[in-house]
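Let's sit down with a protein and look at its sequence and fold side by side. Please make up or recall a protein chain and show it to me in full. Label the sequence line and the structure token line clearly, so we can match residues to local backbone shapes. Go ahead whenever you are ready, and we will take it from there.
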Amino acid sequence: MRNTLLTTLLLLTSVFIVSCDDGSKKTTGECTNGESRDGTTVCGLFNEGVLIQSCVANQWVDTDQCSSDAVCEDGDTQVGTTVCGLNDEGFRMQECVLGQWADTAGCTGDDECTNGDTRNGQTVCGDNDEGVLVQECVLGAWEDTAECNITPVCTPGDTQVGPSACGLNGEGFFMQDCIEGHWFDNADCTGTDICENGTTQVGTTVCGLNDDGLFMQDCTGGAWVDNDTCTGTDVCINGTAQEGTTVCGLNDEGHFMQDCTGGAWVDNGTCTGTDVCLNGATQEGTTPCGFNNSGVLQQECILGQFIDGAVCLNEIYLVLNEIQTGSSGWIELFNAGTTSIDASGYTILVNSFAHGLLSGSVLAPGQYLTINTPAADINSSTVTLYDGAYSVLDTISWSTPQDIYGRFPNGTGSFVPLYIPTKNLQNTDLHPLAINWCDVAAPQDYTVLFGTPVRIFGQVYIPGYTGAQGVVNEDEPQVRGRLCYTDGGVDHCEAADFNEFATMGNNDEYMYDLTLSDAGDYLYWYEFSGDLGNTWTTCTGLYLATITGPPVCDVSGFTLRQQNSIQNFIFPGGTIIPAGQTLVVARNVAQSAFELAWSVTLSPETLFFNSGNTFPQINGAETYQLLNASLVSLDGPSIAMVAGHNYQRASAIADPALPASWVDVNNTTTATPGTYVGTAPGSGLVVISEFSDATDYNVEFVELFCDK
């Protein structure tokens, strides 16, 4: 009802605005003082109106006047102020209509008679009950008085409609019987209503989607009348179906279908979702990708469907790379990937012969593995590589005679005929070249001190290939050069580098820096290959390198003598001290224990002797002297030892008999066995360089130094 009032008020307002529009609309600041209009600020009991605006100083200003005067909400009821009833004892009921209270026919008064009225009652009186008490209306209700009316008013046996209301809605009157001349109500009522107005009940007319209910009935005019309300609660027609609201599907993209059962929607197992995967999930696809199309693209679930991604799965990087046919043939595998591959248990099938790879056959990235197998037929063969599950990883067949088949480019290309074997090396499509002439260019024979590097140049001539090809010389990719040498025993060959800046006419030049560490005579020569080093041509010249030995101090048969208590230590044959190195004689200790005692590590060049408790034997006042094999004194005697001291030679050429020639350390813990700390002018002498007492006599020592 309130909505109706609001709609009406807005309509009236709209009409008002239209009727007042003179076509000269005024905007803010253009109104005429004293004008008024509906504003936009809502007001009223239910915000159904707007505040009236007044033009003040040419500006529209809200007033406190509301366009709506509603005082109630439509449909509400209340007790009004208008009196009613037989004795004005009640008030008219009011209903809110269009926001205003309006009296209805309803009255709160329930008096049944007008005060002061009288009538014959029903209570008998008289000596023989021949009369009835007269009733008077008091406060709207009939009350018996003391007056007994014995005057007959009717003929016994007669009947009439009495004045007493009856019926469910007071629509009838009780019938009266004339008994002894007076009317008495009986139980019969002229009212025919079967229900009390305003009440409701469940009727008998079926209703509902599945006839599961009955229409409710309102009592109107004393009769039951079906209304629109049905007691049925079914929300659907049995047997029908619809899409429900319960989400389903792998990504909740669908809803369960519902069946109408017993008038209610019940989810069944059918889902409207069509997604085939869970968003974000991955799987192995079918689109080839990667190395030699050996892998498949990984698929990612996007919007419920698997879509190829960028990740390539299951790429096979282990390939058959090169095959040498014939009786001395071999098969080469290659790991073209970036991670190691364990090929343990893999199988290579050459025609009908199977060769299993051993445990531990692991190939690092870029690594080759060569298997010498029963020869693949030069004319026709099939070679297949299987993994541990006997799945084919790679295969090659040929029917055209060829010595070598291989992938070119290496590891990735197709199998093609090759002409130079590259066992465990990168494949090439080059053809071999024949070496026409080669030799050592320089030096041809030389003499140097051991350890001195000498650059030796070699030249090679291949018609149509070698020689300057432009601004700088260019090597031939299939040509290799190497310098070889021997001391009369084992031959050694070292790869030489191409000299791109050499100008040698029709020749190419190679070079190698040869360093020989041992003295002696060596033969050297060059060799060249035109097929990547598979076969070599020995060059014309054979030349001599004379290597002179290093300076040493040979003390074989020399005697190291201790004076005071005379002790001698004679060096065995082959005792040679390298130049700039030392020799240590300890009293009675192994080298490891000696190093531990003095907290030193002797270098590999230092010679160490354990005298077996014979030399030295220090108690104080000892001197030391070195004699050659002929017992000719070469150094010493030294200054005398003071017990508990350590003596270190200041210079190899200083007089050992003078105290100034020694650093006297009054603390044996600072001894330096194996390390000469004095001046070494390169005198060519072998001298006594240090001697030391020790807390543990077993580690007493004397040191010699080779000043060369």
Summary: Residues 1-29 have pLDDT under 50 and may be disordered.
